[in-house]
Write a structure and sequence with these properties.
It contains 5 helices and 14 strands. It has 233 residues and is an alpha+beta fold. Strands 1, 2, 3, 9, 10 and 14 form a 6-stranded mixed beta sheet that branches. Strands 4, 5, 11, 12 and 13 form a 5-stranded antiparallel beta sheet that branches.
Length: 233
Amino acid sequence: MNLQDLKKKLQAIKNMGFIKTHRKGDTGIGKTLEDMLGIKENNIPFPDIDGIAELKAYRKDATSMLTLFTLEPLPKGGDRDRTLLDGFGYSKRDNGRSKELHSTLSCKKYNNQGLKLSVEKDKIRVIGKNRKLNIYWDMESISSKFHAKLPALVYVKAERKMLDGDEYFHFNEAYLLTDFDFEKFKKMVKKDAIVVDFRMYYRSNGSVRNHGTGFRVKINKLYEAFKNKTRLI
């Protein structure tokens, strides 16, 4: 599919008006758009832009968050996770874990575990309340991960309505987004439009299980992380 083909298909879908969801629940909007575009996976074969573009559809009234990618901070190694678990982890009596840390970090204030983010010139740093930490992500690693995960994005907005218990979508606005912008990314972190989730715990044998540190974004703000925005419909 080239850009012109995509624009024609999206315009045809827009002209159809409200379309009944092809699947109930949160994922219905993406499934419906994929089906209407005739693609089987959550991406579009797109030779114009490195071979592929991620497809994201969202309800215009949505306030939910989605995971951009997972990326562990520096420095590498288990000592980093042990520092976080020992200093900020907690225990629950019902699961037998000595320490766990399921924690969302934002920039504007410390969370319940005493952790927050701080934006520097070329880093995003983890700050501990009353405890000095040297844990961070650098510009190069974030940029590389973003480009690998989202080299380009087809970002489609939809109005929605309910009729007889079923959800209907009108896909009436779409953009092609390219070129990740670290400066814009940092601004989104500062505004808490992007947050970080730690998900780790100690196993019974004392080793660390890390489910992956996720960068999550407010879905209706995702477009702000790209330099170039081309309106498709």
